Every structure is written in C-alpha cells, then in structure tokens.
Amino acid sequence: MIRYAHVAEPRGEPWQPGDNVPAYVWLHDKGGDADRLVGASAPNAAPVNIVDSGGKVLSDGVDLPTNKLWSASRARPAWCCGTCAS
User: Fold this and answer.
1) 82 within a domain of the structure (yes/no)
2) What is the pTM for the complete model shown?
3) What is the 8-class DSSP label of residue 85?
4) Cβ distance 49 to 41 under 8 Å?
5) Whether the Cβ atoms of residue 71 and residue 42 lie closer than 8 Å to each other
6) Per the structure, how many domains does the chain have?
7) pLDDT at position 75, please?
8) Strands (E) located in 1-86
9) 57 inside domain
10) Distance (Å, whole) CA 67 – CA 81
11) What is the pLDDT of residue 34?
12) CA 22 to CA 40: how far, in whole Å?
C-alpha cells in the first residue's frame, strides 16, 4: 500500500522531457510475508528506477518489512527516479 508519494518540485522551470525527476514514497506492506520492492512504473516516466541517495541503481531492490511503514531515509537511502516523458 502506498501511504505517501512525493515528486520533487523543479527549480526554476517546469520539468522538461528527458529530465530525471526524483520522487520518494512511504510504503506499508500489509501482507503476511516480507516483500521486496524491485521496480516501479509511471505512465509519464520511462524508465523508473529504484536508486540510492547517490543515484546508483539498486537492481536488487529494497526489502519491505511486514506490517511496518517503510520510507527512504539516511538509514535506508532508496528513491525512485524517473525520466520525464514527452
């Protein structure tokens, strides 16, 4: 379940096609087993990657603990970054 999602505000001008747009989410895994977030998608961004705070793609994804709210933080630096589509 997505509890909160935020797309960063552009500085100056609106986001342009081809811009990398950082976003972050808070997720709540309400299932019986722990899950792993390995990908994301958006209708107006391609591709969407899970990345660390330095922009490195986390190809193995991130662990989501069961029945706990998970968010990106300094302890768990994972973000979604998409490229703005035209």
Assistant:
1) no
2) 0.64
3) P
4) no
5) no
6) 1
7) 45
8) 2-7, 20-28, 35-37, 45-51, 62-64, 69-71, 79-84
9) yes
10) 25
11) 84
12) 13
